[in-house]
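quick one before i forget lol
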Amino acid sequence: MSASGGKRKPRLICGRDCAHYGKDCPYMDVISCDDSAENCPDFEPKDNMARKREKDAEIIISTSGFVLDGVLYEEIYDPLNSPPGVFVCLGDDGDIEIVTEVKDGIRKYIPYIPLDDNDPLSTGAVKLPTFCEDYGTEKDLVREIQDHIHRYVDVSPRFERFSAWYVLLTWLYDRVNTIPYLRVLGDTGTGKSRFLDVVGGLCYKPCMVSGAVTPAPIYRMIRQWKGTIILDEADFRDSNEKNEVIKILNCGFERGRPVIRCRQNDVETLQFLPTYCPKVIATRRPFEDKALESRCLTERMIETSRKDIPDVLPPEFYEEQEELRNKLLMFRLRNYNSIDSRKIQEIDLGDIEPRLRQATRSFAFLFSGIPDMLSEFRDFLRRYNEELVEERSETIEGMIVNAIFSLKDEGYERITSSDIAYRVKERFGIERVTPQSVGKYLKSLGIERKRDRDQRYIIWDEKLMNKLGKRYIPGFVTSVTSVTSNNGKLEDYDESFPHANVTNVTHVTQETVQKFIQQLEQERGDDGLIDFERAIDICLSLGIPQPTKFIKQLQARRILLEPFPGKLDVWRGG
């Protein structure tokens, strides 16, 4: 008997006191959590063992984001709020919904919340949005990101623009199959670390792993956060394919390429270590591994001369970044379910190298509905492809390929390793090149040789040589196309008729070529010439594919002349 006179204190339905609560209770909609058990005709006390079994069966998953039944849930984290971490998602009406946990059978998803100050969120090693904010249009968002980059770091305008696109891509990278890496390369004091702070800080869930010289913490960060790896001072002692971190970078370029290891204490159990995610990298030197180099979109940094860039990042920098991350989260929520990877493959990126096309294909969905941005992106890829070829032309392989074509143009029928070695020394001043070393490089390039008496000379494979020319010779034109006169018959170009109907130059119609020539005539500068870059812009405006190749072919037929580097003129005969 109790002190209150022996009357039993009623039990409350809330708190899982009833076996029917939350399952098949017919009174859930009419009985509140404050109603006592005596008000419910079907009250059935739940025994302690059943309650314990239910609790033990529940699987709690602490995460910063997940997808359930087609709905994307993302964590927002603000230590000033209570609770500091909650999930946000878009409702059916497009409005933001906030939940503290999500249940799926025996699974319960809860936001990742730090328990102490030794934590990625508390220490700033990982940055999450604090809320969702509207951003207007995608073009407005790109412009705002680019303005932010310009205020705090000095890179070329083209790479500044591309970095803004890359930031957008990281927020939807898990909806595409491949993603390249953004890399800045330069000596100490050129702004590499600042670039990582500015651009890396805007990427999706940036994970600062600059101090991680071993692979284990990188694997764990990728598995836990599935965000963007920000890697500073990535100049490893051995940056070849044998380095474990290099393996992460090589495999993480494409979905479905985990690193597989046996557990240290149980060799029968395999570990599948995740690698796929965006990565922003800073190095002083190029990587030794050529495969990894091809996965990086690189900007060479130089010491800035701008006076408007602050030496130390001010408080407003962090406020701007927080606001932009909140807008980028809204961009992710709105666009996550609207990406169709099949349509991405249909977008034409122009005449660029297959590896560059594969690396940048994922960007296509960002511009699929914005023609002017897609055109600008194609122009960026064309220029970047030309820079890659220019850099390769300065390697030993590039010098050898240039030497081979030089000898071929001079009429050499049988080109030997000795001929090539002598031409490389003559043109490039590389004394260490010998016929023996040339032979090894020819083998790596896939060029076969044939022995005749005492000499071995290269076998000229037109298809292979055209591929090597495009890869190692700037402005390379595979072949001179034919021109038709007004009677429509194919014939050699008649120098007395400079504006014959060009119908077979990169599959461009006669009418388009005539429009191109007319616009060039209207674009003459004070010197009477046309800038090469302006000619490229005219090509793009007319929808001409492979504009550089198109112009080079017109030059090869003497329809266009280049009297000075970077300047064009229309030939008039005579």
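fyi The radius of gyration is 32 Å.
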